[in-house]
Amino acid sequence: MIKNLAYLSLMFALVISACSTTKDLPAGQKLYTGGEVNFTDKDLSKKEKSLLTEDLTALLRPKPNGKIGPFRFKLYIYQKTKTTKTKGLKHWLNTKFGEPPVLASDVDLTANITILQNRLQNRSYFQAQVTGDTISKDKKAKAVYTVSAGPSYKYRNIIFPTGTDPLDTAIKATASETILKKGEAYNLDAIKAERLRIDARLKEKGFYYFAPENLIFSAFDTTIAGHQIDAYMKVKNDVSERARRVYTINKIYIYPAYSLRDTALKLDSAVKYNWYNVIDRRRRTIRPYVFKNTVLLHPGEVYNRTDHNNSLNRFIELGPYKFVKNRFEDVSADSSKLNAFYFLTQYPRKSLSVDLLGRTTSANYNGTQININWRNRNTFKGAEALTVTLFGSTDGQIASSNGGYALSQVGINTTLSWPRFISPFNFKADNAYIPRTNLSLGYSVINRSQLYNLNSFNGSFGYQWKQNVHKSHELNLLAITYVKPASVTELYLDSIRRTPNPALKHVIDPQFTFGPSYSYTYTNTTETYRTNTFYYNGRASTSGLLTGLFMGADTLGGNAKKVFGTNFNQYIKLENEIRFFHKLGAKSTIAARVIASAGLPYGNSTILPYSQQFFIGGANSLRGFRARSIGPGTIDPLANNPNGFIGDQSGDIKLEGSLEYRPHLFSIVYGALFFDAGNVWNAKSAATLPGGTFSKNFLSQLATDVGAGLRFDASVLVLRTDFGFPLTRPYKSDTAKDKVVFNLAIGYPF
């Protein structure tokens, strides 16, 4: 044992020696290891010192060489690959992965002292003093800055303009919304934010030419007892007359076929439509009524920045336009009216593209897909987008535990999207987002090698719209799916006969579903400045509701009904998914997910159609188990399996939860420690699946796992590796073989 420890110590010493980065420094130079900020104030709280230290340290320049643990690998690579050549492997390694040494002589103490002192004064410490020095040891040196912050000055009063002209009155009217509060410490960043807030409010009231720079906070009195100050909000004396005016909209002009070669406005050729004018040099490239959903400003109304910005966003969301340029012009020098101009540059109307994809699926399949897409962005001159996609894909399983039968698919999808509601009712939306009406039709042939071929038809008609930046809705008035087997092999039929699991037969049963669905999504996860972010998606769908009611469908009662010669499915289905993210520092996160979903077959059905059932397990689910290998309930997927084929385990009810800690390790590499739990169950009991029905004992039937992994997050692509270890299985069996499951996937699991 001692001998082994000696060998390990020797190897560690060799690594340390090999990674030494100071022996190759220029003569007389020292490696800069970073800056340190120390406070002498005894009155500062521990929390305030910590926040100030973090803030000030981030301002220090230069930054020292980056480290992974105790080692400066980039500097080491730079030193070992240094070369005078401008080509070759050494030069490439040196320039791409190396980092030149940051020397103590590069540090400008005086400049850093000035920066730190200014920041402290901007953070209410008006009497702050900073000194700096360097401390050396061997061939390394660090900078130490000693700070005497002094007292923090707080607001006693925030005083807004008291004048009676329209501008002063409008500014004073925003006082109740101020972000500056009595008793809070002075902060220059907060003052800048306050000026931006006031400017935004004034832009809603018609002050088009006003700017944040027209405001000034002045007359700070630092002699008030208790280190308090009075802050006076004022409009600068030299503000122009235009900045003080309230502007209204005069006329609106739209150029739907604009190019950079167009220099003349040609106002005499404008065609008036409702409240705006269209100037189309190419004669009817798009119908004028389209812009009713985009132009939110109206003649005679006071200029409003929200309507202005929302209009610009809606022009882009229409679809045919690549660029939108806008400008406002005074009607005359002494006028308080504006003419608005929108110059729209089109995409090519028709386009053809080819996508070649590599992918991993939730069922542990790896494969490729090719899409050939044809698109018309302005099909009927109403900004309708027609997209036709021909696709083909093939997927297979490597080292699979369920047979590895390859899956291939070819088909066509067609979608026609209108940038408005197609409805007998008049819906009005005035936010930044264009509502859409979508009609889609598709057909595909699904081939499971050596098992079966399926013909699949689908279609839908419905609406998509965003309520605001956080909330979105999707309502399909009708969604139709029809799946019918084209051929089934004896191998698969033999599996159905030998295995009691009805899910195998359910895959090849004809499936006919039709009905409405509604989905609601709320998310603020794109707001990365938040400590806590949240995502929720809820979906409700049904099939054959009214049809089954009118026809009196009752399969259990021997009264199964058909539509177009096929038994149709009847069910009600509710799905819920919640995700929660809590930031731990700048880059590390705790993430949690809960899924609670259920489908209830009734009337013409005793089980959900296969395409609507729930599955669990795999790279994006329970990572300690193979994909779709858990459930329903306590069913053992490996029991009664004489020919080695295991079908996907499915159910009508799904409960799933995950908790994951995602620490930032270095560079683009993140770690993960996770815990997963969940299962699926059937809503109704089946004689061939004892233990597969949801009951009061559902908690004891949850499968659980723990694991660890790495995420290589390059922003545009995330490569993920996970090792999952099963903790508990819902079934009591010795047939389970997996002690650890490795998952390789693209993207985060949630």
TrEMBL record:
Domain Bacterial surface antigen (D15) span(s) in chain numbering: 362-749
Cellular component, GO, one term: outer membrane
Signal sequence, start to end: 1-18
Subcellular location: Membrane
Disulfide bond keyword on record: no
Keywords: Cell outer membrane, Membrane, Signal, Transmembrane
Stored InterPro entries: Bac_surfAg_D15, D15-like
Entry superkingdom: Bacteria
Name assigned to this protein: Membrane protein
Organism of provenance: Mucilaginibacter galii
Taxonomic lineage: Bacteria, Pseudomonadati, Bacteroidota, Sphingobacteriia, Sphingobacteriales
